[in-house]
Amino acid sequence: MEAVLSAFMMMPSLSVIIITHNEARHISECIDSVAFADEVIVVDSGSDDGTPDIARARGAKVVVTDDWPGFGPQKNRAVDLASCEWVLSLDADERVTPELAEAIQAELLHPKADAYRIARLSSFCGRWIRHSGWWPDYVLRLFRRGTARFTDVVVHERVQASGEVATLPGHFLHYAYPNLESLLHKSNRYSSDAAAMLHAKGRRATLSGAVGHSLWTFFRIYLIRRGFLDGKEGFILAVAAAHGSFFRYSKLWLLNRRQ
Question: What's this model's pTM, rounded to 2 decimal places?
Fold first, then answer.
């Protein structure tokens, strides 16, 4: 009994951070998958579907913001609210598997690094995608508080760690796109945000360049990254990615022209 109590007292504390906006469909299962954490912090950007109430009912600490500064700044707000020694960042449509939960708890007892990459298995229209550049899709999500921050960008944020980085066994489950409409909606929003970010950095684009980016994106995903092995869903994903690339640079071209 004393040995068990001693091990429990030595267990490092873990904060899980999640940013949300209208994630009522996902947030309960996301929070339930990290029941082993010491605290779960949800930073919500004005959901109107009951997401904050659902998160509170699951035991999460919820903060609602009245603005949207972008993915990087919003996640850094959540990092600043964490009080534990370690921080795990999750998206609402992600789940920690039991195997990954065990790997995290075991590693934190005797950490070999200050930050950890974790693989992510994503689904599209009900199919787990294992090619197309989607797998293993390592993302740096677990880090010692004070040693890492998210990049201060509107989209395509990532964790920048100052210490040693290692890789954990196991993987997240990512329920990314239940249907094609959700993928196209996100692609439209991301292409607008990315074009605005590139324009602010002084990047230039041409319409012919947008076509070239689109064709290369399809070739890279479907052939080089073997998207054809993901069946019909792989073909749709390659076309959708090419579509997103074309509109990102077309929107940038239009912003350049307007200026």
Answer: 0.88
